[in-house]
Amino acid sequence: MNLEPQSTEPPEKEPWTIKRLLDWTAEHFEKRDTDNPRLRAEVLLAEALDCPRIELYTQFATVPSGDSLKNFRSWVKRHAAGEPVAYLVGSKEFYSLKFSVDTNVLIPRPETEHVIIEAIEAVKSLGLSVPRIADVGTGSGCIAVTLATQLPASQICAIDLSRAALDVAQRNANDHNVGANIQIIESDLFAEVPDQQFDLVVSNPPYIGTAEQNTVADSVRDFEPHVALFAGQEGMDVIRRLVASSVERLSENGYLIVEISPFILERCQALIRETSGLEWVKLVNDYSGHARVLVARRVMG
Question: What number of other Cβ atoms are within 10 A of residue 80's Cβ?
Fold first, then answer.
């Protein structure tokens, strides 16, 4: 779009240049205790101007106008009221890839990248040339699509009980040219999945207990899909079912890799150790040092 400076402000009034817009918006967000206020201001303005974020810094003196400025001001108001930036702009970066998102799916988060790292390591340790992977509760497809880009020979089932979420996942698979690697399946866990074995079962399931609901950020609780967040009083309802059903679907020495909350760590450890056919492998901490991903392995006999 054309971002040439425009003289739309009266001479005596300071014009709303890109720099001034960013400075004011970052300060506005900071007063509302928003994380990374400057970054959020930049993401919103770059999207409104349909330009890469880095280009904002080469056009500080430019004065945007028209629909771009109108959209930006609307988004700033909505984000200040709690609406997530990713839903406003319709996308989120994950593992250096851009994913489409809407309110039918969770917003991808950096913590989930540890699932990707562990899955890739598991494939290497198994020496698989054509890994068979099930991504249970795929949501936006960020795990399935990322693994397909990193493991080009992989065969992946992306499973979710939400048709609307699967539509988002399919769009992301197509956008990243990995649609041929991914089979989209509408199912509650493995209920509708054809009888087959997998080398890996990966998942970012709902793991927040309803008892903890008031501890969740307003922007998450008010805007993101509850079916992908909450799982019973303790947060274990889906994980218990996932672990039990994965035993039957994993090939010998196959890996189960699941994102969890540190609040349910001890219950998850006990669950794995009590489940016949699985052995605990390790726990992975996230970038903040919190327990985040459990890794277990299928054992026979």
Answer: 14
In tens, the pLDDT along 18-67 reads 999 999 999 999 998 888 999 999 999 999 999 999 999 999 999 998 88
Signed CA dihedral, 260, 262, 263, 266: sign only: positive
Quickly list DSSP for 241-264: HHHHHHHHHEEEEEEEEEE--GGG
Give the pTM. Answer: 0.91
Predicted confidence at residue 178, as pLDDT, reads 98
CA 48 and chain centroid, separation: 22
pLDDT higher than threshold 70 for residue 11: no
The residues, any chain, with a CB within 8 Å of residue 42's CB and separated by 6 or more, are 22, 53, 56
Which among 10, 88, 7, 55 is positioned nearest to 18, based on CA atoms?
55
Cβ(17)–Cβ(62) under 8 Å?
Answer: yes
Strands 278-285 and 291-298: antiparallel
Instruction: Return the pLDDT at 301.
Output: 66
Q: Measure the CA–CA gap between 250 and 257, rounded to whole angstroms.
A: 11
Closest by CA position to 143, among listed 204, 81, 61, 56: 204
